[in-house]
C-alpha cells in the first residue's frame, strides 16, 4: 500500500517536472515574469504543497515557483558530477519529496546533446503521511472488527460443533453400556448350560468334559471383560464433576476391606501380604471407585508375584495429600512395556503366560479413577525384582 502511494506520487512529480522543462530556455533569459500569459503551467501544480525549481547547467538556481519550502529542507544547487543516467533523480529531504530531471537539447540532427539545466519538482509528504495514517487507522479498525467478527463466529461455531460431538459421545457410551448389558444375559445362559452339563459329568465322555471346560473358561473371561467395560463406561459417563457423588471416605475402612479380602488369598498362594493401617485419614471421593482402584492394584501385585514373595501396602501422609503405595517382589515390568500398561486391553507377554484370564483393563480403570479424583498414579518397576505403584490423592 505504501509503495503504491509513493510510486504514484513520484509519477505525478515527474510529470510536473517534465511539463516545466520547455520553459527552462525562457527562464534562463527572462525569468518567470512574462510566462504567465504564454503557458498556463501554474494551473498544472498545487502551489500550496508543490514547488518547481529551474537550474542552469552548472546547477545554480535560476527561479522558483510554488510553495516556499524551508531552505534547510534541500540544497539550493544541483550536485555536480552526476551523469545523464542518474536522472530522473528521486530524493526525500525531511518532509519533502523531490524529483530532478536533466534537460538536454539536440544539436546537429540529434547526434550530440547539450545539457541546458535541471528542473526540480518538490512536494510535501505531509499529505501522503496523512493519507497513510488514515489508511492505517482504517485498516486497524477493519482488522479489529474482522477479528471481533471471527471470534464471535468461532465461539458460536465451536459451541454448535462441540455440543453435538459431546452429545454424540455420551450417546455412544450409553449405547456401549446397553450392548454390554445385553451381552450379559446370553452369556449367563451359556455358562448355566455348561455348568449343568458338567454337573452331570458321569453321563458325558471325558473329551466332551474338556471342551465344556474350555467353553466355560471363555465365557467367564468374556463376562469379566464385559464387567470391566461396564465399569469403565460408567466412570467415563459420570466424568462430569456435577454427576460425581463424592463424600468423605475413610482410608482405614477401604484398607480393612482389602485386608479381609486379599490377605487370605495371598496366604493361599504362599505370598506374604501386609497392609499397614494409618490413623483416621479421610479422602474426598467415591467409596466404590476408590475400593476398585486399590483392589485392581493389589490384585495385580498378588497375581504377578511368585509364591514365597511379598506384597506390602503402605500409606504416607503429606500436609494436603496422602500417598498409598502397593509394592511387590514379583516379576516386574520392563522399561519398554511401561509406557503401555495403562492402555485399554494391554497385557504383558509374561503376564499373559502366567495368568490367561486377564482382560488388560485393570490398570486402565485404576488410572481413570485416579484422574477422576484429581490424583496422580506413578510406577516404579524392575524386571525380576518387583514393582511399586504409588497413588497420590487429596486429603479432606
Ligand atoms: N504388579 C505388577 N507386576 C508386574 N506386572 C504388572 C503389575 N501390574 C500390572 N502389570 C502389567 O501390566 C499389565 C496390565 O495390567 P492390568 O491390570 O491392566 O491387566 P491384567 O492384570 O493383565 O488383566 P486384568 O484386566 O484382569 O487386571 C499386566 O498384564 C502386566 O503385564
Ligand atoms: Mg490386573
UniProtKB/TrEMBL annotation:
Domain Histidine kinase: 178-396
Domain of life of the organism encoding this protein: Bacteria
Coiled-coil portions: none
InterPro entries referenced in this protein's UniProt entry, alphabetically: BphY/WalK/GraS-like, HATPase_C_sf, HATPase_dom, His_kinase_dom, HisK_dim/P_dom, HisK_dim/P_sf, Sig_transdc_His_kin-like_C
CDD domains: HATPase, HisKA
Keywords in alphabetical order: ATP-binding, Kinase, Membrane, Nucleotide-binding, Phosphoprotein, Transferase, Transmembrane, Transmembrane helix, Two-component regulatory system
Reactions accelerated catalytically: ATP + protein L-histidine = ADP + protein N-phospho-L-histidine
SMART domains: HATPase_c, HisKA
Subcellular location: Membrane
Gene Ontology MF annotations: ATP binding; phosphoprotein phosphatase activity; phosphorelay sensor kinase activity
Listed GO biological process terms: cellular response to phosphate starvation
Main subcellular location: membrane
GO cellular component labels: plasma membrane
Name of the featured protein: histidine kinase
Entry's EC annotation: 2.7.13.3
Amino acid at each position: 500500500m505504501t509503495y503504491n502511494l509513493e510510486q504514484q506520487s513520484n509519477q505525478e512529480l515527474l510529470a510536473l517536472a517534465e511539463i516545466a522543462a520547455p520553459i527552462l530556455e525562457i527562464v534562463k533569459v527572462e525569468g518567470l515574469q512574462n510566462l504567465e500569459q504564454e503557458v498556463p503551467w501554474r494551473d498544472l501544480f498545487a502551489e500550496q504543497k508543490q514547488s518547481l525549481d529551474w537550474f542552469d547547467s552548472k546547477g545554480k538556481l535560476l527561479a522558483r515557483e510554488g510553495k516556499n519550502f524551508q531552505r534547510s529542507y534541500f540544497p539550493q544547487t544541483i550536485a555536480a558530477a552526476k551523469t545523464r543516467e542518474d536522472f530522473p533523480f528521486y530524493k526525500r529531504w525531511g518532509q519533502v519529496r523531490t524529483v530532478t530531471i536533466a534537460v538536454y537539447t539536440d544539436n546537429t540532427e540529434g547526434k550530440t546533446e547539450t545539457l541546458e539545466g535541471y528542473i526540480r519538482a518538490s512536494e510535501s509528504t505531509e499529505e501522503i503521511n496523512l493519507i497513510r495514517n488514515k489508511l492505517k487507522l482504517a485498516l486497524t479498525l477493519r482488522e479489529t472488527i474482522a477479528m471481533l467478527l471471527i471470534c464471535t463466529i468461532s465461539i458460536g461455531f465451536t459451541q454448535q460443533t462441540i455440543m453435538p460431538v459431546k452429545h454424540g459421545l455420551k450417546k455412544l457410551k450409553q449405547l456401549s453400556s446397553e450392548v454390554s448389558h445385553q451381552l450379559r444375559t446370553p452369556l449367563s445362559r451359556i455358562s448355566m448350560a455348561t455348568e449343568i452339563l458338567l454337573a452331570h459329568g458321569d453321563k458325558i465322555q471325558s473329551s466332551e468334559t474338556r471342551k465344556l471346560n474350555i467353553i466355560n473358561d471363555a465365557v467367564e473371561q468374556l463376562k469379566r471383560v464385559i464387567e470391566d467395560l461396564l465399569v469403565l463406561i460408567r466412570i467415563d459417563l459420570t466424568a462430569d464433576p456435577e454427576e460425581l457423588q463424592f463424600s468423605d471416605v475413610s482410608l482405614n475402612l477401604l484398607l480393612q476391606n482389602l485386608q479381609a479380602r486379599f490377605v487370605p488369598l495371598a496366604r493361599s498362594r504362599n505370598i506374604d501380604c501386609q497392609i499397614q493401617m494409618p490413623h483416621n485419614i479421610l479422602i474426598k471421593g467415591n467409596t466404590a471407585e476408590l475400593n476398585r482402584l486399590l483392589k485392581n492394584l493389589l490384585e495385580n501385585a498378588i497375581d504377578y508375584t511368585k509364591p514365597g514373595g511379598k506384597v506390602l501396602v503402605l500409606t504416607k501422609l503429606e500436609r494436603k495429600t496422602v500417598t498409598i503405595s502397593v509394592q511387590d517382589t514379583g516379576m516386574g515390568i520392563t522399561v519398554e512395556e511401561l509406557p503401555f500398561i495403562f492402555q485399554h486391553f494391554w497385557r504383558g507377554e509374561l503376564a499373559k503366560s502366567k495368568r490367561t484370564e486377564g482382560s488388560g483393563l485393570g490398570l486402565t480403570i485404576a488410572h481413570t479413577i485416579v484422574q477422576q479424583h484429581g490424583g496422580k498414579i506413578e510406577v516404579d518397576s524392575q524386571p525380576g525384582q518387583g514393582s511399586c505403584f504409588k497413588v497420590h490423592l487429596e486429603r479432606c
